Amino acid sequence: xxKTKRKALIVSAITILAFLAPPFGQIENLAAQQKLDLPTIxxxxxCETVEDRTPRGIRQIYxxxxxxxxxxxxxxxxxxxxxxxxxxxxxxxxxxxxELSISPxxxxxxxxxxxxxxxxxxxxxxxxxxDHILKTLSFIIE
Length: 142
Description:
The chain is an alpha+beta fold. The chain has one helix at residues 2-35, and strands spanning 40-47, 49-51, 54-56, 61-62, 67-76, 82-90, 93-102, 107-115, 121-129, 132-141.
């Protein structure tokens, strides 16, 4: 009887830790970014267009006839002028690396990529500052 209760208590503790681990990891990542003086991403999305510095047509899946897609990034808490990169990948292959200037204290910027009809499959864009990947955005072309 005692062994059963102890086992149930251990299982409960493991379940709670498994549930809490991801938020603690996110807090740790945010703390590490602040220590390194990295900007905070307010918003980062893949979209069909950018109008008046606002992304439009945000989805996860796009048709192969889309033509052009945009990676929109809004950064806060920028410490100094610098450069970020949007690195576009089709599968595991890098297909574009776009250099974008940023300035304090906040900045909105975007890059675009022409998508040919035959480029179906999984895509991602890494938003990079120096040696640090600030965020990875994934999407699919059908």
